Amino acid sequence: MSIRIIVTGGTFDKEYDELTGSLRFRETHLPEMLRRGRSMLEVQVDVLMMIDSLEMLHHHRQQIVEACVRVPESRIVITHGTDTMAETAQVLAATVPGKTIVLTGAMVPYAFGSSDGLFNLGSALSFAQILPAGVYLAMNGRYFAAGHVMKNREVGVFEEATQGE
Amino acid sequence: MSIRIIVTGGTFDKEYDELTGSLRFRETHLPEMLRRGRSMLEVQVDVLMMIDSLEMLHHHRQQIVEACVRVPESRIVITHGTDTMAETAQVLAATVPGKTIVLTGAMVPYAFGSSDGLFNLGSALSFAQILPAGVYLAMNGRYFAAGHVMKNREVGVFEEATQGE
Amino acid sequence: MSIRIIVTGGTFDKEYDELTGSLRFRETHLPEMLRRGRSMLEVQVDVLMMIDSLEMLHHHRQQIVEACVRVPESRIVITHGTDTMAETAQVLAATVPGKTIVLTGAMVPYAFGSSDGLFNLGSALSFAQILPAGVYLAMNGRYFAAGHVMKNREVGVFEEATQGE
Amino acid sequence: MSIRIIVTGGTFDKEYDELTGSLRFRETHLPEMLRRGRSMLEVQVDVLMMIDSLEMLHHHRQQIVEACVRVPESRIVITHGTDTMAETAQVLAATVPGKTIVLTGAMVPYAFGSSDGLFNLGSALSFAQILPAGVYLAMNGRYFAAGHVMKNREVGVFEEATQGE
């Protein structure tokens, strides 16, 4: 079973730039994380874009849709900023049939000490192997079907919600 | 959905004792790991024992069987040393029906920098939520049914194998 | 020998705020760092302020001068943002006689994985114990006398420079 | 000013071997630690040996003496196991005149999360730059002259002691 990991950025891959004191993207940490988890899964990592999901526009989401349709794998994990992950999931659910797509991200960059990134990656890869075709979010150890989840910005966790909330 | 985590020790929870320069067990790191993963799962953590799985005897495995039968949850994750994890899995498969039991561990202690522990925990908790009743191992990002897996000690990964190998 | 550590903030003590995705100050990490270094020095930690040194105004530097004069210790370490550390050092050199004052900071927050903070703290505390009365900067493993150092912002290191550069 | 770092092993450089579950030596972490500290010191790192100091015999200490005499630098830092560091220091004090030699080590391997290694390295390099010719130990943030220090094994810290204790 082969899984495609599509990287779009988000807090997951942010780093601290010591010259400017700000956060930025450089190389994705996915390969390093798979090594740390000692993953023996057959996985292909594609870096599609590296942006904060608050900056995602329609054409970014279109690129993600096209990538999901184009790749041969029927099981896909997408790393994504948590702020608009639920939105991207709904677009995918409406446009990409017949594949198991699991979106995940992190509340703290993997590059920092106390990140949830590695936990979420292990979680998402497991859900991607078993869940039936459909689009899901994997955060906080749980999974949510697209259209039935929202990010609670006050406490920084994902919760069930009815579509359109 | 409620998950029971039964802690039995193994490399997962080992620590470095600076006074003796050796490795030892103290408190389990499970609660700290669940906090780091920002887990919102309904989980109960039980510390059943804290031993190296190479030191497990029949009565240790009996305790694990009894704990799995006794707890009300039908979905269980067991943290366990990797050396004899496959063995404990086979005993459970023969004695505990009707529950989804996922064993996991770590090749490097969580307390050390480059541990696979957090990745494996996220992975195991996800498999525990969706696999049907049965006994499984979750290691290296994958899952294996009890009786069909062995630890390859030369390279330190888990692989499929026929029962009795 | 007693050393006073005066905390003023800077990158040294910044943290990642996962709800806003930005960097901010909370509690100082100094006590935790002294524990990690297993320091047996007689040290008193005072949090005077927690600000980015780019935001320091005259009255902030006045507070630092007053604190250095007021404390009984004649050996002082000040944690400070690296951007205007050389400036504060010159003000101190002109106003606080008879004490060994060593300023230090970090290019990467201690709270992140790859910080120079612990190295700089060990370095600064050592210089504070043996340098004669005067004001110094301890960065990049070296020490510089106040008035003879500047931060090279292009590469993020401290170098010797003549006063007023 | 040039400093020679002579690596002899000790807990400082130990690593976790995941295939055997034991601690062992591989490559020294000194270069990585100097990069992390963003050291701009002129430093030459020599790996003389990689052993636990409890296993040091007379000929090992002779090698260390010869290395200290041979190198052109007059300022030297030696990384060493903490168990017999005081002993090696006394041998050096009796045989190597005219150089500032600072021994340091770690209670927890640098490769693990909560190591004092980086703090001790910053500390030792600073003492090496300033202290007059002689042999010293740098541990717990402090420095001790050779012959006047012992390791308190019960609590794992270094304390002043009269020679021969």
Give structural attributes.
165 residues; alpha/beta; six-stranded mixed beta sheet; two-stranded antiparallel sheet; 4 helices; 27% helix
Text of the CATH class of chain A: Alpha Beta
CATH topology value of chain A: Rossmann fold
Largest interface: A-B, 35 and 34 residues
> Averaging pLDDT over every residue of chain A, what do you get?
95
Rg result of chain A: 15 Å
* Low-confidence parts of chain A: none
Task: Please give the domain count of chain A.
Answer: 1
Amino- and carboxy-terminal Cα gap of chain A = 35 Å
Report the sheet with the most strands of chain A, covering strand number, pairing sense and barrel closure. 6 strands, mixed
Overall body shape of chain A: globular
Give the second-level CATH assignment, the architecture of chain A: 3-Layer(aba) Sandwich
Helix proportion of residues of chain A, in percent? 25-40%
Class from helix and strand fractions of chain A? alpha/beta
Count of runs of 4 or more consecutive helical residues of chain A: 4
Give an overview in words.
Helices cover 27% and strands 33% of the residues of chain A. With 165 residues, chain A is an alpha/beta fold. The first copy, chain A, has a single domain, classed as L-asparaginase, N-terminal domain (Rossmann fold, 3-Layer(aba) Sandwich). A 6-stranded mixed beta sheet of chain A has the order 4-1-5-6-7-8, with helices on both faces. In chain A, strands 2-3 form a two-stranded antiparallel sheet. A two-stranded antiparallel sheet of chain A has the order 9-10. The radius of gyration of chain A is 15 Å and the shape is globular. The model of chain A has no long low-confidence stretch (mean pLDDT 95). The interface between A and C is medium-sized, with 18 and 18 residues.
